[in-house]
Amino acid sequence: MTTRTLGCAELYGRLRHVVNQMGPQRRTRRYTDDLLPSYFTEGGGPADLHGHVLHGLGITADTVGLSTLNVEGAEVAYPGFGFTLTEKAIRLAQFSQEFEETWTWGDAVETATRLAHQLDDTAEDCRLGDFALLAVLRHVADRHPPEMTPLPGWLPYDTPLFIDGYPTTLLGHAAADLHVNAVDASRLGETRAVDLFHTLGWQLSPRAQALADTVQHHESHGESWPSAVTSTEHTFLDHLDRGEWDR
User: Fold this and answer.
1) Which residue, 16, 60, 89, 105, has fewest beta-carbon neighbours within 10 Å?
2) Do the strands 166-167 and 162-163 form a parallel or antiparallel pair, or are they unpaired?
3) Domain limit, last residue, from 86, 117, 148
4) For a pLDDT cut of 70, what percent of the chain falls above it?
């Protein structure tokens, strides 16, 4: 079996995509007394938060078959399905799976992410593909009210993504959501997101870089944040790759 490494940022983006699509108030329903994790229902659909992530990665109920992986914890299931997790991603997976038993999916992912970021990043934790980046951008854009998004002429194109430790632009807020170092980001004064991520040691896939530039283009032309993300989604709709990321 070919294995791929799933770092914290990529796993977070994929969890965030599930929450974006299913709604932050979604809960996992368990029908057994032992509360064992089950990623797919008897009907073949994703049963829980990580079931949706695995399904997006190409794992289906037919793939699982009679495998006991369907009732293993996420730290065992992901490697069993061919996805090696970093230590930081393991923490994110474990806590989000634990919290979703009693919390909404939005709260589970939010709190698990904060706990995961108590650990230091490895190089794999700072790799990000277009699918995960777009999910983070959608989350950031939708949680800010329209009046907080740029109006024509409000933020010129050469505005730094971070000023005095605070994000200013859509991509700045996305970087903050991914827990980049805000102090270093402010010191750099980068205006292009791709350059900021690169200088801070992140590795964005080629399509993720193009996506970031496209969103910044729409924002600089006065589009609201939700509109800028939607316009970019339309541009990349036929190219988004759920199963692969930067090589």
Assistant:
1) 60
2) antiparallel
3) 117
4) 87
107 backbone dihedrals φ, ψ, rounded to 5°: -70, -40
The CA distance from 237 to 239, in Å, is 6
> What's the CA gap between 184 and 170, in Å, rounded?
18
Cα atoms in the Cβ-side hemisphere of radius 13 Å centred on 200 = 27
Q: Is residue 239 assigned to a domain?
A: no
Domain-embedded: residue 220:
yes
Sequence-ordered list of residues with C-beta below 8 angstroms from that of 33, at least 6 positions apart, any chain = none
Q: Which two tokens stand for residue 2?
A: 């070919």
pTM to 2 decimal places = 0.91
Q: How confident is the model at residue 126 (pLDDT cuts 50, 70, 90)?
A: very high
Interatomic CA distance for residues 213 and 218, integer angstroms: 9
Same domain, 9 and 113: yes
Which helix (H) or strand (E) segment holds residue 71: the answer is none
Of 92, 117, 142, at which residue does a domain stop? 117
Bridge partners, residue 203, by sequence: 127
Q: What is the pLDDT of residue 36?
A: 67
Among all chains, which residue has been given the structure tokens 């190219």? 239
Residue 137: closest CA among 238, 196, 188, 213: 213
How large is the greatest C-alpha to C-alpha distance in the chain, in angstroms?
58
- Which pLDDT value is given to residue 9? 98
Token pair 């589009």 is found at 223
pLDDT at 148 over 80: no
